[in-house]
Fold this sequence. Notes:
Elements: H1 5-15, H2 19-26, E1 32-36, E2 48-49, E3 56-59, H3 69-72, E4 76-78, H4 86-93, E5 99-102, H5 109-117, E6 123-127, H6 131-144, E7 149-152, H7 156-159, E8 166-172, H8 185-190, H9 193-210, E9 214-224, H10 233-242, E10 245-248, E11 259-260, E12 270-272, E13 282-289, H11 321-325, E14 333-337, E15 341-346, H12 350-357, E16 362-365, E17 367-373, E18 376-379, H13 381-385, E19 395-398, H14 401-408, E20 422-428, E21 431-438, E22 443-445
Parallel strand pairs: 5-6, 5-8, 6-7, 8-9, 19-20
Antiparallel strand pairs: 1-3, 1-4, 2-3, 7-16, 9-13, 10-13, 11-12, 12-13, 14-15, 15-17, 17-18, 20-21, 21-22
Helix pairs in contact: 1-2, 4-5
Amino acid sequence: MNLPDIFEQSMRQLLGSRYENFREALLGEPAVSIRLNKTKSDSSPNYESVPWASDAYYLNERPAFTFDPLFHAGSYYVQEASSMFVEQAVRQHLGEAHVALDLCAAPGGKSTLLRSLLPDDCVLVSNEVMRTRAQVLTENIIKWGHPRSIVTSNYPADFTLLGPTFDLILVDAPCSGEGMFRKDEVAVSEWSPENVAICWQRQRDILTDIWPTLRPGGLLIYSTCTFNTHEDEENVRWMETTLDAELLPIATNDSWGITPSMLSDVAHAYRFLPGRTRGEGFFLAALRKRSDAQDSTQRTEPNAKRSKKNRDKRPATSLPAECKEWLSSNYPYSFRTTETEIVATPKDMEAILEKLAENLYILKSGITIATRKGRDLLPTHELAMSNALRTEAFARYELTYSEALNYLHREAITLPPDTPRGFVIVTYHDIPLGFVKNLGNRANNLYPNEWRIRSGHFPDKQVNVI
């Protein structure tokens, strides 16, 4: 990898004598890390723990995650270790939280992390403006399985008219990507000082648009995966002065190797630098909206192409009685039924969902538990992935490793003759992978075609990460 000359000059000026160690690390191999979904797995892998995150581990090497069935089941998420530092900001500074927003959420690592950290009754809104990336985000949110999750696809300005709505906002801002250089050569080729200037100005626009939606006393976490001070400390300083935000300290351990702020007038900022911390480049600051703050930001009209009402206008149909039996009794649900699908939503989400639907494009809310195909009612893959699924609702069949890969390739599955007819959940290590419909002589594979493993070969040995 050839680093841009101007980048090297700026980093040498920023880091001084530490630059050579940084450069050597930046040209090396990145660490590989995962974070467990404790609602699906009680595993305690024999790996080194990520010290600033719960249930997170460094792997000894990068396995072929595609061929681990538990990866597809949502039992863990492959997340860069440095970015898990978000946990410390949340644990140390977030009090009571009812609604949270991950504004730039794709592909979903920080959203799934937040979902694990937030109170169970807190609603998490995960947003991604780019529709293709929003689909990936939706898939990962579905696999994580929490029913109080909403996925939207909107510009930051579309949120502005909501007014103070969120107790927590995470802005993992689009940036010049310097921290990803050793993982992504495209980031190296696209880097330029001009792009850095575009990024820091766009980041301020994003923060200006979203700040009015943070409640007084609420917490905003600002992060990037870049190194320059323009996108990092200088933006934090701008938030302190322009938005009258209170910059918050985060307690750390010296053994973590976190680098403090590079600017003396920005007291609390946290940098992860290759060569000092085991992870990729990352920057984070936590800011509080003062309880007596006056909203000095200028509100803009939402983008007309994105802002729209999301109420389903299709005629409602009756709710089949068995659908209620598919869900656990942990939450009281409301149900929306149409000619094509049935969606269950925890009742305490209805007020925020209605508010969001007035201004935002919503891709997913609650749990789509069934679709209609002619006269047939088909339980969805989303239901199989959900933590709200009632364990006894369907017969289950435990797959071997090779059977699980066949299922994930969307190939035919043969069940034992004594398996009950109808819809059956297939599991791996007792964790649901999805549905089949058992017809007796054969079983129809209902795994989503767009999610199937497309690789035509099988691994030489089993891939079992956890």
